[in-house]
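# nightly structure sweep
# worker-07 picked up a monomer target from the shared queue
# config: single-sequence mode, recycle default, output format = C-alpha cells
# input follows
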Amino acid sequence: MSRSLESGYHRHRMISRKSLLIIAACSLAGCSSGNSSGLGGHISPEKSEAALLKAGDIARDGGDLRSAGELYRQAATIAPKDPVPYDHLGAALFKSGAYAEAFEALRSSLARDPDNFVANRRLGKLALALGKPDQALAYFQAAEKMHGDDPLILNGIGVAQDALGDHTRAQVEYRKGMKLAPENLAIKNNYGLSLALAGDYRAAIATLSAVVADPRATAQNRQNLALAYGLAGDDINASVAARKDISDSDSASNQRYYAVLRAMDDRKRTQAVLGSEFGRINDVELKAGTTPDRGSTPNADGR
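# output follows
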C-alpha cells in the first residue's frame, strides 16, 4: 500500500508513534525542566530543536520518512536560522525519492550556510536528477573548492559537463577522479561513455571493455559498451555486448536506434543518449537513455 493511500487508522497510528518518539527523544536529549519536581518548567529552544531532530532521526532510521519530515520541519520552525534541520529534511526527502522537495530544502540549508560542503554535493546530484546540469555544475564546483580531492565531486562535474555537451572538459574531470579512485567503476563507465559521445570510439570501446571485464560490472555497463559499438557502426559487436542482458528482438531494436543516433548532430545525440534525467543518484553513473530509479533507496546521508 502506498503512503498516499494509507487509511485514516494507519495515519493515526503514525501520529501516535511520532508523539512517542518525541517523548523518547526529549529524554535522550536531556529536555528536563528546571523544576526539581519535574512537573513543568521551561525547555529551551535549543533543546526542543535537538529533541525534534533526534526524533526525526529515529523515525527516518525506522523507515517512517513522512513523520521524519514533519519533525524536521518543526525543528526548522523553532530554529529558523539554523541550517541543520534543512540538512536533515533534505536527506529524508532525498531518501524517499522526493527530489524536487529535497532540492528546495537543501537550498534553504545553503542559504543559511553557503560553505556547507554536503549541501552543495547533494544539490549537485539532485540537479542532475532533475535535468538541471548547469545548476549541478555550479554546485559541484562550489563543493570542489572546499574538497578538491573528492573523486565523487570530480565525477559529478564530469557528468554535468557531458550533459552540457562539453565532453573535453568532462573527460579532464573523469581522469582526475580516476587518478584518485582507480577502482571506481562509475567514473570509468562515465569516462568511456563520454569518449563515445565525443566520437572517440576506439578509446571508448577500450575503456568500457575494461569496465565490463570487471566482476562488479552491471547490465548497464554492458549496454553502454554496446552503445559505443553501435555509435561506431559495429552492429555485430554491439549485439554481442547487449545480448547477455536483453533479448534478440530488443537487441535488434537497439541497433535501429543506434542508426538513428549516428545520423544526429552531436548536441542532439548527447541529449538523446543522456536524456533529461540520466544520473543514478547514488553514484552519479551515466546511464544511456534512462532515468533515476525512483524506487531505489539512496544512502541516508544522500551520498
